[in-house]
Design brief:
- The chain contains 12 helices and 8 strands.
- The protein is of the alpha/beta class and about 300 residues long.
- It has a single domain, classed as Glycosidases (TIM Barrel, Alpha-Beta Barrel).
- The chain has a 6-stranded parallel β-sheet with strand order 1-2-3-4-5-7. Strands 6-8 form a two-stranded parallel sheet.
- The two termini are about 35 Å apart.
- InterPro entries: GH, GH_1_N_CS, Glyco_hydro_1.
Length: about 300
């Protein structure tokens, strides 16, 4: 039977691995790097396992050449890494920290020299602490301009070398864990603030994708999303409806914005009834609709039942 056959992966399939700057780099205060929200958050007792931090991690900042040699030995075709915003702009904006930018230039060059396609994530959760303190980070519209300016510096620095870009990594995770579960920075548990911050992140994501295309960058850009499909536990109509509601609130609420530029109506009405809906200003939906990502990255961990 046809469904029992497995086709080979294409020759140009990008088998790879991924990391986040705070998870692997270490060197948390070297070469002009500024403080990120994670640098501060991990010092709160009980927020990480046994109080562990990323101050040293696996020391990728100093050992990246050895790490890339291992990637090549493993046969990886691509490596997705994130740039630490505070290595480029220690305070989130202002003068470029050339030492920080130079590290990523060496990293990208080393990957290319080893025939490994670099895939760059603009944001993997390490917001500059200065921006959090100055205007509450993702809760302010000011972040749209700051994030776009930061992204443009990287676009210009790696034009022609990096062809695959992730705008925001797992927005649904850093927003829900940071503003509802209090498990990530800024450690808030408030659904109204969560959906407001999420709307700001959507606008920033759209602005950055538009900037990428405006600059006629060679390559592709899109967000990545942590998707856990929701299934009904049985055929009971109430459980089927519960699964559909969960899919709207936990998945489509993000993916519809990314790909269609609008919020799913049922989910938005539910938030309005709860008093949690974001405040949508004139021009917001036009910006969201104008952004056309080249792809949607799916990080798949598990499915859920309702």
């Amino acid at each position: 039977m046809e469904h029992q056959k497995l086709n080979d992966f294409p020759e140009d399939f990008l088998w790879g691995s991924a990391s986040a700057a705070y998870q692997v780099e270490g060197a948390y205060d070297e070469d002009g790097k500024g403080e990120s929200v994670w640098d501060k958050f991990v010092k709160i007792p009980g927020k990480t396992f046994k109080g562990t931090t990323g101050e040293i991690a696996v020391d990728h900042y100093h050992r990246f050449k050895q790490d890339i040699a291992l990637m090549k030995e493993q046969g990886l075709k691509t490596y997705r890494f994130s740039v630490s915003w505070t290595r480029i702009f220690p305070n989130g904006r202002g003068a470029i920290n050339q030492a920080g930018l130079a590290f990523y230039q060496r990293l990208v060059d080393e990957l290319i020299d080893n025939d490994i396609e670099p895939m760059l994530t603009l944001y993997h959760w390490d917001l500059p602490q200065t921006l959090q303190e100055e205007y509450q980070g993702w809760e302010s519209r000011k972040i749209i301009e700051d994030f776009t300016n930061y992204a443009q510096v990287l676009f210009e620095a790696f034009r022609g070398k990096v062809h695959y870009w992730i705008s925001l990594n797992e927005q649904n995770i850093f927003i829900s864990h940071g503003y509802l579960l209090a498990a990530h920075p800024p450690g808030v548990s408030d659904p109204k603030r969560m959906y407001h911050a999420n709307h700001m992140a959507n606008l920033a994501n759209a602005a950055v994708i538009n900037k990428f295309h405006e600059l006629e960058m060679p390559g592709k850009i899109g967000p990545s999303f942590a998707y856990s499909p929701n299934y009904a536990i049985d055929s009971n109509p109430q459980n089927v409806l519960a699964a559909e509601n969960a899919e709207d609130l936990l998945a489509n609420f993000w993916m519809d914005i990314y790909m269609q530029g609008r919020y799913p109506l049922a989910a938005l009405r539910y938030l309005e009834e709860k008093g949690w809906a974001p405040e949508i200003e004139p021009g917001d939906m036009a910006l969201l609709a104008s952004a056309k990502p080249d792809f949607l990255g799916i990080n798949y961990y598990q499915s859920t039942t309702n």
